[in-house]
User: What shape does this take?
Amino acid sequence: MSLVSVLYLIFLGMVLLVYYALPQKARPYLLLLSSWAFYAINQGYYLFVLLLSISINYLLCRGWAKHGNRAWVAVSILFNLALLSFFKYLPAIFGFTSLPDGSLLQQIAIPIGLSFFSFQAMGYMLDLHWSGKRQVASMAQYSLFMSFFPQLLAGPIARGKSFIPQVSKASCFNYADMVSGSRRILWGLFKKVVIASNLSPYTDVVFQNYNDHQGITIALAAIAYFIQIYMDFSAYSDIAIGSARLFGYRLMENFRVPLSAKSVTDFWRRWHISLSSWVRDYLFLPLQYQTRAWGKAGLTTATMITFLVIGVWHGANWTLVIFGVLHGIASTWESHSKELRAKLWQSLPKRIGNVLSNLIVFLFIAASAILLRSASIGEAIAIISRIAGSSPLYLGSKQLLVFAISGMLLVFGIDTFKGDIPIDEYIGKQPKALRWALYICLIIALPLIGSLSSENFIYYQY
Amino acid sequence: MNRQQMLSQVEDIIRHTLKQPDVCIFEQTTASDIPGWDSLSHMTVMVAIEAHFNMKFSFMEMISMSDIGSLLDTISSKQ
Amino acid sequence: MKRFVTNAVLLLTISLVLDFGIGKALEYMYFANTSGAPGYVLNHAVSQPYDAYIMGASGAQRGYIPSVISRELGMEVLNTGEAGTNIFHNYATLKLVLKHRTPKLIIWDLTDADYFYRPDAGKTGMITPYYHDPDIKELLYDLDPLNKLWLCSKIYPYNGKILSIVSSYVSKPNAQAAGDKGYHPIEGSINLKMRSQYLRQFSEEQSFIKHRSKDEAAKDALIRKYFHAFIQLCRDNNIRLIAFHCPKAPLNSQIASTPLISEELRAQLQHYNIPLYSIMPGQYPEMNNLSLFFDFSHLNHSGAQVFSRIIAEHIKSELK
Assistant: This one.
C-alpha cells in the first residue's frame, strides 16, 4: 500500500474516524494497532522483525536506565547494526542476490522501513545516554514512536525527544491541524502524480537503453532523474507529515527548498533533513569531538566517514559508496576553501554569484544522482562517459514532459516565493480566494494530467 | 573573572575563529544567530575556547549547550 | 469538526462540478476525432464498417498493411493495432464493433503477452473513454476494481490526453493521420550495435512466462478470461479468426527458427481450431533479411510489404 494510493487514503480516513471517536486515552493504542496492521499489510511476516526490534531495543533502554552502564548503549548499537547487516548488507556482500532463482536467501528482501526505524532506535538510545536522565518512555509510547504508520516505511526519521512527549499530550480535534495536514497531503499527491510519475517513463527509457543515447539526452535525463527523486521523496514526506498532522502529531521537516542550496554542505542541510541531521548529531559531532585535536585533518576524517555512512545507508552497492565519497570530498573542499570561495563570490555581482553557486550545486547533485540510478560502477561510468558524445535529442512522450514541466513551474515558482517555511504555512498566509483556487487546481490536475498508475516511491528501497 | 569578562573573551574567540569581526553576543545568543556558526565550525569554536580557558569539555557538555549563557555556565563550573 | 467537514464537502462539490464540465468538454472533443489516428482508432472502427479487422499491438500497427491484404482478398480491411495494448484492447474493440456490424474476419497478431500478463503490454487508456458502454464498463471494473471510484471523475477517462485531444480538435487531423487504414509505416533499419541488448531481450521474453509470481498468476487468470471471451465472441458471431505472429529480427539462426508463441498458447489455439501461422524467417527465406526490420521486434515499411503479402496468401488459402 503506497502512500499515493486510494487504499492508503481509505485506510487513513478510517483510522482517523475511529481515532477521534475514541476517548483520548485509547487513541495512542489505536494508532499502534493500526500501524502494525499497516506494516503487516505491506510487509507480511516482516512485522515480526519490527516487533523484535521494538522489544529488544526497549529492553536495552530499560537496562540502561536501571544500570546506567555504557555497555547497554554499545549492545543496542551493535544489535541495530547487526539487524541492518543481516537484512540489508550481508546478502549483497556475499552475493546472495545474484544466486540462481528459487533460493531461499534470495527471498530475503529488505523489510521496508528497516533503515528508518533502526536509526530511530539508535538515536533514542544515544539521546538517553547523553541526556544522563534515566527516564525511559512507556512501552506503548516507545512502540508508537518506532512504528507510527505515516513515517514507518520511509521516514522522516523521528527523534524520541520530540515524538514521545506528543504521545501523552492530549490530542483534541484541531481545525488548524486538520487543514494543515490536508494541504500537505494534497501538495504531496500533486508532486508525486503530476511531476515524479510523469518524469519516470522518460528517465526509465533513457537509463535502461543508455547505449542508444549520448550527450544532451543523457545530461537531460540525469537532471530529470534528480528532479524526479526530489519530487518523489519530498512528496512522500509531505504525505507522511500531513497524515501525522491529521492526528495532531508534528513530524520533522524533511526538505527545505534544496534547489536553493548554494553549497553541497548547504544542500545536505535542506535535503532529507531527518537523515542528514541524524548523522550530524549521532555520528559527525561525536567523531568531530574525538578528532578535534587533529585540526583540519580531524574535520576531514569526520566529514568523510559521515558521508560514507550516508552513501551506504542508501544500500549495499559500490555506486553508493562512491556517491558518499564524492559528497564527502565536496563538503570537505567547501569547509577548507570557505575564505577563498567567499572572496571569489564577492568579486562577482551578488545575484550572479548566487545563481552561479546554485547552478554548480545543482549540476553536481544531478551528476551524482546517476550513481543512485546505476546498478554498478561500470554502468555509472558508461553512462557518464556518454555525456561527452552527441546524438539527437530524445524527449520521450512530449505530452508527459509538458505535464511534468507545468507541475514543476507551479512547485518551483511557489518554492521561490515561499522561501524556507513549510508549504502548508505558506498557503495559510494567502487570501482565501487564492487558497481555494490553488486547492481546486491541484485536485483537478490529478485526473487531468497526473500519471495515476500505482508506482512505488523510490525511497522505499532504502 | 566575572561573567562579563568571560562573555567578552568568548566574544573575541568567536569573532576570531569565525572571522566575523562585527559579531556581538549576549547570554541568549544561540549558534544559529551567528553567521558562519554551523555544525562544521562548532568544534573549531569549542577547541579555541578549551585552549583559551585551559579546560576540556565532555561531549555531553558540548552538545547540551543551548546558548551562550549555558556555555558560560559550563566554563565557570570548570574553573 | 463541523467547520472542517463543511469546507471539505464544499471543496469536493466545487471540484466535482468542474470535473464534470471539463470532462464533458473533453468527451465532446475526443469523440469528434474519427480520423483513426493512433489513440483514436476505436472512434474510427465504430464509425465506419469494414469486412475485416487486423487486431494486435504495435506489431500489428507496424507490420500489417490493409491495402495489400485488401487487394488479395477483395474486402475492406482496417488495422486496429495500438502500441502497448493486449487482448483487453482487442476484446473491447470487437465488442464495440459488434454493436454496429459483424465482420467476416479477424486477422489476429498474437503474442505471448495476450496470454501471460506483461505490465508493458497492458495499456487500457484507449478503452476508458468508452466506459459508458456497459460491456466496456464491466471490463474496466474487472481490470481494476478501483476504476469504480476513478470513473466517478468525468476527466479520468481522458487522463493524460488533454493536449492531444485539444490540439487534434483545434487543428483537424490531416488525411495522413490514420496512416494506411491504421497501418503506420516506419522507415530505417535495425541498429546492429544493440545486438547484445536485443539478444538479452530475446532470452528475457523467452523466459518471462516460465516463472510466474502469485501476483502475475492472478493477472494471467484475468488476461486468459478475456482471451477465451474474445475467441468465444468470434465463434458466437461466426467470425473467422486467423492468428499470426510477427517475426523477430533474425539476428542468429536460433531466433530465426524459434516459434515465438509458447506451447501452452499454441495448444489453446489448437483446442479452438484457430489456424496459427508463425512467420519465422527460418522457414520464410524472403523474411530472412535484417534490412526488413526497424528494430528487434518491428518491421520497417519494406518488411511490412513482404510480410503482408505472405499473410495475405495464407488468409486466402484459409478462406477458400
